[in-house]
TrEMBL record:
Keyword terms of this UniProt record: Hydrolase, Metal-binding, Zinc
TM region positions: none
GO biological process: nucleobase-containing small molecule metabolic process; pyrimidine-containing compound metabolic process
Active-site residues (renumbered): E63 (proton donor)
Segments forming domain CMP/dCMP-type deaminase: 9-136
EC number: 3.5.4.5
Protein name stated in the entry: Cytidine deaminase
GO CC terms of this entry: cytosol
Amino acid sequence: MENKSSDADVIYKLLKSSRDAKKAAYMPYSKFPVGAALLCADGTVIKGCNVENASYGLSICAERTAIVKAVSEGYRKFKAIAISSDLKNSHIVPCGACRQFLVEFGTDWDVYMTKPDLSYKMMKTGELLPLSFVPESLEEERLSNSIKG
Ligand SMILES: O=c1ccn([C@H]2C[C@H](O)[C@@H](CO)O2)c(=O)[nH]1
Ligand SMILES: [Zn+2]
């Protein structure tokens, strides 16, 4: 008997993990819990939640928490991220800072923006941040500087 989960099973589990991750949200100021679940290339799932601070501007979103946790554990290749909030009538979308954090690791992986019933909208990281400034952008800059002498 084959014991391999289908892609649809993996994504369904990822959506549920992001909803589960929301339970740990530390959001005493906004009272707006967000959870994220990041699917790494090897199938590992890493969760994240928003973590706020009395110095409001230091608050970190669920998506960036998940990315920072993953990278600090040695993961850099990602297939998808799912995001969950309590908003019933709209899909939660990543903020601008998180979109920039996501494209750092590629412009062609999947962002699942959910509602609490796990219905979702999916867009590619690069679609969420067109004309993005990415690691290659720095290389081109260095190259043109070296040509200029
Ligand atoms: O996609 C989002 C949008 C918002 N937040 C957090 C930031 C802040 O803690 C709270 C309200 O903006 O929700 C996230 O974690 N992810
Ligand atoms: Zn964000």
